Amino acid sequence: MNVGRLAGRALLPCVLAVSALLAPAKGRAAPPPAAAAVEIDRLISALADSGCEFQRNGRWYDAGRAQSHLRRKLDWLVERDMVASAEQFIERAATRSSVSGRAYQVRCPDRPAEPSATWLRRALEGIREPTPPSR
């Protein structure tokens, strides 16, 4: 009896179990914390409702197309458990093209174009401002 072969067979189930635990599994990723998910949704909605245009890869799109593009990128990040805050969403999905590396721009009526990260961070500050109590 070959002792090395026997030891290898005994270790195989352990190696497979450890590999399964360490391998990223599609569908097992946790969604971002609830507060972050709300902020991200509000950011994307703010852009969609802004009347601004969104530039990616040198081409301008309306805010509705920007919204669907950013939601697809968000879904990709969530599937890989790569977004836990609105800041991570801005940095990892809404700042530049993952294909070309070119920075995204936002252009609003009567304003010059600016980096999307700048626009989104400013919008996030507005979302986080405490609302005064109503009387």
TrEMBL record:
Alphabetized UniProt keyword annotations: Signal
Signal sequence, renumbered to the chain: 1-29
InterPro entries in the record: DUF5329
Protein name: DUF5329 domain-containing protein
Lineage, uppermost ranks: Bacteria, Pseudomonadati, Pseudomonadota, Gammaproteobacteria, Lysobacterales
